[in-house]
Design brief:
alpha+beta, Ribosomal Protein S5, domain 2, five-stranded mixed β-sheet, 4 helices, 5 strands
Length: about 130
């Protein structure tokens, strides 16, 4: 398999990921990986975690388009997309990624604000008198 395209999601962020055989270059929104996530080493490590676990860091090029959410959500969506693409390539990769919890989509999203309340769960202060 020389080219795999799939999407990954987290919160309101969506990452469309294309994985192809190459030297390990990662491009996010037409920018280099280090440039896009500049100053966020924890997000960078989180994104390349599936490639490190499967020992494919230098085997595949990743081309991604991310939209929505913030930088952290985009990074996690990108990680999810890369994991799903690797799982399609090999069952061995799928087993490793499943054991490390990288194929499960984190479904937690922000709860909506309720009417008559300041936030989703916070209530206005009650006054008896």
């Amino acid at each position: 398999m020389s080219r795999v395209a799939i999407s990954g999601k987290r919160k309101t962020a969506i990452a469309k990921v294309v994985l192809k055989e190459g030297e390990g270059n990662i491009v996010v929104n037409k920018k280099k990986f280090d440039e896009y996530f500049r100053g966020h080493p924890h997000i960078k490590h989180e994104v390349i975690k599936p490639l490190i676990l499967t020992d494919t860091r230098k085997k595949f090029d990743v081309i991604a388009h991310v939209s929505g959410g913030g930088l952290s959500g985009q990074g996690q969506a990108l990680r999810h997309g890369i994991s799903r693409a690797l799982a399609l390539i090999s069952d061995d990769y799928k087993r490793i990624l499943r054991q490390n919890g990288l194929l499960t989509r984190d479904a937690r999203i922000v709860e909506r604000k309720k009417p008559g309340q300041p936030k989703a769960r916070k209530k206005f202060q009650y006054s008896k008198r």
